[in-house]
Amino acid sequence: MLFESFDLVSALATLAACLVSMALLLAVSQQLWQLRWTATRDKSCKLPMPKGSMGFPIIGETCHWLFQGSGFHASRRQKYGNVFKTHLLGRPLIRVTGAENVRKVLMGEHNLVTVDWPQSTSTLLGPNSLANSIGDIHRKRRKVFAKVFSHEALESYLPKIQQVIQETLRVWSSNPEPVNVYRESQRLSFHMAVRVLLGFRVSDEEMRHLFNTFQEFVDNVFSLPIDLPFTGYRKGIRARDTLQKGIEKAIREKPLCTQGKDYSDALDVLIESAKENGAELTMQELKESTIELIFAAFATTASASTSLIMQLLRHPAVLEKLREELRGRGILQNGCLCEGELRLENICSLKYLDCVIKEVLRLFTPVSGGYRTAVQTFELDGVQIPKGWSVMYSIRDTHDTSAVFKDVDAFDPDRFSQERSEDKEGRFHYLPFGGGVRNCLGKQLATLFLRVLAIELAGSSRFELATRTFPRIITVPVLHPTDGLKVKFYGLDSNQNEIMAKSDEMLGATV
Ligand code: HEM
């Protein structure tokens, strides 16, 4: 008995000794890890390194970030200031918030900083993508792309955008079950990219196959670059190769499809624009550009469309004011959208609609920020950004903390009205589409798409939340509601009657 209790005591003592040594080892290795990164400071620069913690060896603060979500950055910013260092997803990073700091990073493109995509993203998007181009090559490529998003080009895409949105809303309304808005918005933005931008006429079956392959590609664009069977990276490469084959086939068949077509698509404009700029694109360049455009449009537009629908549900007064504006401009008459009234100039002159879209993109900004690498050591907010460090400029945090927005957390479209113009109180306070030479190329197209969606929703749909409460919003990988946002849609006939009978069990807000 005595021996047994002695064994227990010694086992407990050994365990305690092990735990203490492990804690000590962890503390020492953590200190060494912090010192390892402090040692990378540029000694020729007198300024201190940014404050912050590099977390634990190798994993850094990745677990804190995953658990805390968007609260992670807010808590670090409160503790260490607008420019702080951390270590996320296997790499050291300096996170930058605030209009003045962001301005310096964005205006320093090619000089102070350059793009810095993870290796998997660079490889999967390909060497000819904008994401992988810098300096003069980037400038020339953007020039070729600029025509794709010009006023004339947008005018020619408009009827197709409207048609794709109308078809989608019809399908949503004919579904007796609530729609998962985020998932279906992804499908909608994919259809928009394939049909409107690229002008591909593919069968529903082919479209489904392309969509699934594209999702596989997107799911693995940010993965560890280990090319072994069953790794995400290998899956991403396979998906990319399948997409490229499908796109090549569609491009080769394209001249046949254009017969009788009354509009140009982005691919036509891109090919034309490249010729005009004396830089005819090879098939490989066309395939990479095509995938890059769909990739850039896909998650961002789906996130913004979902947030738009959620805000219209949350704020019926905003939807009513939108309807009033449409009535006032003769676009909505007797509860119906008037055929032929949806022209680009009409849409762009709808001031309140513009305020609503801007406010959705301010409060629910789809892209949280952009990654860069410092190409030389420079000063920011009184600290040094050492050469070689990754820098992430933050869009969402800059919106959330900007002093120019009164009652910053409130959904208030009128803050963008001519009288208040809060966004005009300084540059870089409002930047849902980034800024500087790498600002979003598709921003006009994205806002046009969101405007048409809002008009169609206001004019020809009734929709209601199908859950008791509104879902929580998460921000990783792009901002979206946790349950995708479940909504029941009802189409309206010309007398404003619901085409589908309204189910009694449906709960929540109706607009
Ligand atoms: C609401 C929707 C959208 C949002 C919020 C958005 C946001 C952004 C942001 C923040 C950037 C800059 C990233 C950085 O600084 O690293 C960007 C770049 C870009 N976006 Fe968008 N975007 C949207 C839709 C689109 C669409 C529809 C297209 C095209 C079809 C597009 C094409 C691009 C391209 C090509 C770039 C890279 C530009 C370059 O590197 O020069 N985006 N976008």
TrEMBL record:
GO terms for cellular component: endoplasmic reticulum membrane. Its cofactor is heme. Heme binds at residue 440. GO terms for biological process: retinoic acid catabolic process; sterol metabolic process. Gene3D superfamilies: Cytochrome P450. It catalyses: all-trans-retinoate + reduced [NADPH--hemoprotein reductase] + O2 = all-trans-4-hydroxyretinoate + oxidized [NADPH--hemoprotein reductase] + H2O + H(+); all-trans-retinoate + reduced [NADPH--hemoprotein reductase] + O2 = all-trans-18-hydroxyretinoate + oxidized [NADPH--hemoprotein reductase] + H2O + H(+). It is a peripheral membrane protein. It is found in: Endoplasmic reticulum membrane; Microsome membrane. Keywords: Endoplasmic reticulum, Heme, Iron, Lipid metabolism, Membrane, Metal-binding, Microsome, Monooxygenase, Oxidoreductase. Its main location: endoplasmic reticulum. One of its GO terms (molecular function) is oxidoreductase activity, acting on paired donors, with incorporation or reduction of molecular oxygen. Belongs to the cytochrome P450 family. This is Cytochrome P450 26B1. It comes from Albula goreensis. The lineage of its organism: Eukaryota, Metazoa, Chordata, Craniata, Vertebrata.
